[in-house]
């Protein structure tokens, strides 16, 4: 028996030697440390960290200084921690943008910013003029595309006075790409709601310089029917009646000519930062593969016309960045370095269309084919104390790994759950999406939105840092498992075809 005990002790020694340092490192992820980072990043002096802004640069400097303090290697461009990319901020020039509907001698002119709003699509330097086709989908949820839309301006009758089907936006985007000259969504919104939509549309848009002016698809405009009622009356078109027809309507509108002029105004151009740091893996072979942790550093800046105008973004996403920093510090401790390398990525421009992560995945500072997984954090400091949404559980076997890690650590009292709000399409709304569409397995952790989301009231005092500490420890153990397991995470074949191949 004595010899069996000795043999057992010898065989279990490596595992015990590994588990104890991991537990010790995980214990360094604490609520006070997380809250300390959040208080710095979400301070009023950071002015909401808009992209671009001096305060976003200060946030990047703070994250850089912490990575340097932990002893992580620079993994940006030119031997630095920063990967910069160009952005252009622009808006529709409402003074030069109009929609005209004409039939015989009757003409209605609708101005963008007053009667209409630009939604998406190519803004051509020259005016668009084309005959019209009327489409009212009725109760049908089928595609709006057909050969009859080629070269026409589609007058789309949607009932915007009530919630639209979840698929409506995708159907309009599909229609825009199908070859029409333009798509005019004829709107019946009440005046207050339409004014709010106009205000939102007037906000400046941000694009990466590499994509500026490269929009695809026909322009899509929401046009309020009150602005073109004279022409509609002359054509004997009754939008309210047509919307009520369950079978829908699809026909040309003889005699109706529609002209559209769109112009944009450039407000500024800037270079903005992603922050990237590397912890080299311990295995001579596996260190050439990478696990990426990510959390965006930007927020939405300042809201005008309010007493408290700073959108601090404590939960969105200072909480995620604090988690990123605590993970980096824990992995940088001696004795816990995993076999694979770990990349810590803090992108900017997430709030403006996932710009920083799109740039990184198109211009990766490590080979994209060697990135085995992305673990993304966004809004992880609020809501339920004992659970967290993990988007992507069913996409790859990372879901199985996560459940095994969670089961192995009941002391964390943190249960990963599936997306509670699939209608919100949060899979497409944070930086993990750009990794997933490039074929990288992902898990996205979020505790969801709340009444303070994108409001000045999203402040550090409302963060549940004790809950976040337990969650970040779970993500530490998850990363350690992924970075030490020889087989790479594998996709579910059907989900790969859907997400990566678009089939």
Quick structural overview:
By secondary structure, this protein is of the alpha/beta class. Helices cover 31% and strands 24% of the residues.
CATH architecture of the largest domain: 3-Layer(aba) Sandwich
The percent range for strand residues is: 15-25%
Q: How would you name the oligomeric state of the polypeptide chains in this document?
A: single chain
CATH third-level topology of the largest domain: Aminopeptidase
Distance between the termini: 61 Å
Q: Which range best describes the helical content: under 10%, 10-25%, 25-40%, 40-55%, 55-70% or over 70%? A: 25-40%
Shape: elongated
Largest sheet: 10 strands, mixed
Rg, nearest Å: 26 Å
How would you explain this protein's 3D organization?
With about 500 residues, the chain is α/β, with parallel strands linked by helices. The chain is built from 13 helices and 18 strands. The protein has helices at about 1-25, 30-40, 55-70, 170-175, 190-200, 230-235, 240-245, 315-330, 355-360, 400-410, 430-435, 465-485, 495-500, and strands at about 75, 80-90, 100-105, 105-110, 115-120, 130-135, 155, 180-185, 205-210, 220-225, 250-260, 265-280, 290-295, 340-345, 370-375, 385-390, 415, 440-445. Helix 8 links the parallel strand 13 and strand 14 (about 340-345). Helix 2 (about 30-40) packs across helix 8 (about 315-330). The radius of gyration is 26 Å and the shape is elongated. The N and C termini lie far apart (about 60 Å).
């Amino acid at each position: 028996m004595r010899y069996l005990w000795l043999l057992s002790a010898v065989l279990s020694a490596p595992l015990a030697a590994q588990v104890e340092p991991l537990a010790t490192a995980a214990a360094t992820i604490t609520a006070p440390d997380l809250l300390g980072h959040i208080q710095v990043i979400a301070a009023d002096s950071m002015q909401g960290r808009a992209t671009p802004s001096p305060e976003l640069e200060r946030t990047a400097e703070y994250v850089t200084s912490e990575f340097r303090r932990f002893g992580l290697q620079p993994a940006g461009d030119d031997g630095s921690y920063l990967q910069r990319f160009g952005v252009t901020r622009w808006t529709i020039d409402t003074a030069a943008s109009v929609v005209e509907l004409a039939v015989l001698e009757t003409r209605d002119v609708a101005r963008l910013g007053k009667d209409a709003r630009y939604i998406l699509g190519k803004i051509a330097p020259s005016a668009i003029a084309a005959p019209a086709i009327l489409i009212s989908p009725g109760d049908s949820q089928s595609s709006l595309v057909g050969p009859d839309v080629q070269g026409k301006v589609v007058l789309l009758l949607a009932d915007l006075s009530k919630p639209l089907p979840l698929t409506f936006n995708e159907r309009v985007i599909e229609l825009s790409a199908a070859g029409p000259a333009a798509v005019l969504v004829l709107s019946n919104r009440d005046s207050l709601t339409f004014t709010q939509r106009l205000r939102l549309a007037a906000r400046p848009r941000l694009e990466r310089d590499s994509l500026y002016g490269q929009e695809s698809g026909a322009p899509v405009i929401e046009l309020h029917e009150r602005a073109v009622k004279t022409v509609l009356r002359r054509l004997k078109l009754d939008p309210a009646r047509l919307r009520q027809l369950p079978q829908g309507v699809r026909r040309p509108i003889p005699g109706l000519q529609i002209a559209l002029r769109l112009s944009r105004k450039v407000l500024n151009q800037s270079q903005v930062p992603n922050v990237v740091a590397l912890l080299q893996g311990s295995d001579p072979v596996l260190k050439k593969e990478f696990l990426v942790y990510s959390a965006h550093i930007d927020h939405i800046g300042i809201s005008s016309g309010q007493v408290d105008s700073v959108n601090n973004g404590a939960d969105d996403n200072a909480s995620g960045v604090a988690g990123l920093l605590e993970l980096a510090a824990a992995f940088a401790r001696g004795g816990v370095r995993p076999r694979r390398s770990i990349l810590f990525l803090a992108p900017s421009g997430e709030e403006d269309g996932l710009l920083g992560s799109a740039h990184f995945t198109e211009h990766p500072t490590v080979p994209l084919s060697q990135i085995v997984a992305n673990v993304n954090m966004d809004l992880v400091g609020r809501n339920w104390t004992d659970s967290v949404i993990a988007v992507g559980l069913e996409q790859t076997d990372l879901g199985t790994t996560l459940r095994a890690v969670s089961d192995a650590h009941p002391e964390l009292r943190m249960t990963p759950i599936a997306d509670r709000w699939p209608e919100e399409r949060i899979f497409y709304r944070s930086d993990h999406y750009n990794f997933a569409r490039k074929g990288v397995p992902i898990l996205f952790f979020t505790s969801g939105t709340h009444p303070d989301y994108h409001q000045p009231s999203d402040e550090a005092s409302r963060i549940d840092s004790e809950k976040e500490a337990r969650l970040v420890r779970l993500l530490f153990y998850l990363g350690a498992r992924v970075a030490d397991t020889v087989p790479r995470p594998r996709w579910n074949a059907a989900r790969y075809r859907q997400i990566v191949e678009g089939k």
